[in-house]
Amino acid sequence: MNKVFQFVLFFVALFAVKAVAECADEDNFSACIKYIHENKPLYCNTTDYECQCRWDTHMVTCFSVCEGDESKASALSAVQLAANKTCQAFLDWTNTFPKPNRTLTEDDPTPTSDVVGNGKARNVETKIKAKSSASIFAVPVHAVFSVSALASVLVVALL
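Structure for Extracellular membrane protein CFEM domain-containing protein, as requested:
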């Protein structure tokens, strides 16, 4: 994310905080925006799209405190646009990695991390069963995305 876009986003959010209060919980809204602006730069570098997506998505949730506040509508739109852009950048980045050529099924044998006689590990891929369904995902050791970021992307996509 470039510095100019972050600068504009900061002032849009700042404008939202300074807008005439039509929100019953303006203090919590302001504290939420302030917390994100103070902490996002501490935890995210400009090319860490996963981190940027997560914090931008949290910024969108700040607006739920003042749901229906028309004075914040344009700021909410700008923040949603920023979140969509950073989350799309994260998705684009993750799509640059090779994908497995087949999907595991429940009938497939569970991979293990056995150590063979020569001391070398084989089959370091692990299997994670989703709690909500019978889906099984193969997660290679070199996977670089997190479930929380993927959930954040899905939340943004549903908005």
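Residues 99-143 form one domain.
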